[in-house]
Specification:
This protein has helices at about 1-30, 35-55; strands spanning about 55-65, 70-80, 85-90, 110-115, 115-120, 130-135, 140-145, 150-160, 165-170. It is of the alpha+beta class. The protein has 2 domains: about 1-35; about 35-170, Lipocalin (Beta Barrel). Strands 4-3-2-1-9-8-7-6-5 form a 9-stranded antiparallel β-sheet.
Length: about 180
């Protein structure tokens, strides 16, 4: 009889030890997973690296013409910023004021610039205000960008012969196909 009692007690202890080991293993697996805060911090660090390297692509998701109307963009429109160049392939919705030849620039904001000034100012609560002034693009006066710490961005184009337009979208680090 004592053998059965000891075996019964040993089995209970063994069950408790197994349950304890499973619990510890599960806890370690869960705690090894990156937390939501870790993922957010990693994304913010990646955005910061892109802005500081001055090598990123803004992918437009919405156009906001000055006259109103928030338009969803279904195509791949973007604005590439590089240390040595700016490449814009964006649509235009708005009003032209003067000196716009028929079919000029296909109605969009499409240019490549290699002469420009680029100023980035970090915001106190995260994000950046960026001002770009291309010197070799005839009708683009200023490009103002606000980039959030999470990579969301708003880009506004001030155009000398058309009403201003802004775009909402995201910053990406991947190279997109050239337009």
């Amino acid at each position: 009889m004592t053998i059965n009692i000891n075996t019964s007690i040993a089995m209970k202890y063994l069950k408790h030890i197994i349950i304890l080991l499973i619990t510890i293993t599960a806890f370690n697996a869960v705690s090894a997973q990156p937390t939501k805060e870790d993922k957010k911090k990693a994304k913010q660090d990646a955005v910061k690296a892109l802005v500081e390297s001055q090598h990123y692509t803004f992918t437009a998701q919405y156009a906001n013409p000055q006259g109103g109307g928030h338009r969803f963009l279904s195509s791949d429109y973007d604005f590439k910023v590089r240390k040595d160049s700016l490449i814009a392939y964006l649509p235009y919705f708005g009003r032209a004021y003067f000196d716009v030849p028929y079919n000029s620039n296909d109605g969009g904001i499409k240019f490549t610039s290699t002469k420009f000034t680029y100023t980035a100012i970090a915001k106190k609560k995260g994000g950046w205000d960026i001002k770009i002034k291309p010197a070799d693009v005839k009708y683009i006066d200023t490009i103002n960008m606000y980039i959030s710490a999470d990579g969301y961005a708003n880009v506004q184009f001030t155009i000398t012969n058309k009403s201003a337009i802004s775009f909402d979208g995201i910053l990406m680090d991947k190279e997109t196909k050239s337009k």
